[in-house]
């Protein structure tokens, strides 16, 4: 169970780091730049811990899919970036693909 928590926190740390990357203005602002380095470092550390129990393909699919979807939503909510229908459909397909992998794949740790 704790490996799923590690994965969840890895996703959150990656999303915070990516949002901070936008705010760092090309690493010209100190605090967001520090959040980028710390966030990505912590995310990869937790992802590495996750890989002790979850296969790399499954863990990475969840990490990347959730990260893409969450950062797109943050871009829409925080940075006023537009999400059109193809973007929303694409995110739905990503989430659906991760769900299919977790539910039906024999590689997924049930």
UniProtKB/TrEMBL annotation:
Organism: Salinivibrio kushneri
Keywords: Cell membrane, Membrane, Transmembrane, Transmembrane helix, Transport
Entry-linked SUPFAM superfamilies: Multidrug resistance efflux transporter EmrE
The protein's name: QacE family quaternary ammonium compound efflux SMR transporter
Transmembrane segments: 33-51, 58-79, 85-104
Family the entry assigns: Belongs to the drug/metabolite transporter (DMT) superfamily. Small multidrug resistance (SMR) (TC 2.A.7.1) family.
Primary subcellular site in the record, as a coarse category: membrane
Keyword Phosphoprotein: no
Record GO terms (molecular function): amino-acid betaine transmembrane transporter activity; antiporter activity; choline transmembrane transporter activity
GO CC terms of this entry: plasma membrane
Gene Ontology biological-process annotations: glycine betaine transport; xenobiotic detoxification by transmembrane export across the plasma membrane
Domain of life the protein comes from: Bacteria
Localization per Swiss-Prot or TrEMBL: Cell membrane
Membrane topology: Multi-pass membrane protein
A Pfam family of this chain: Multi_Drug_Res
Coiled-coil annotated residue ranges, if any: none
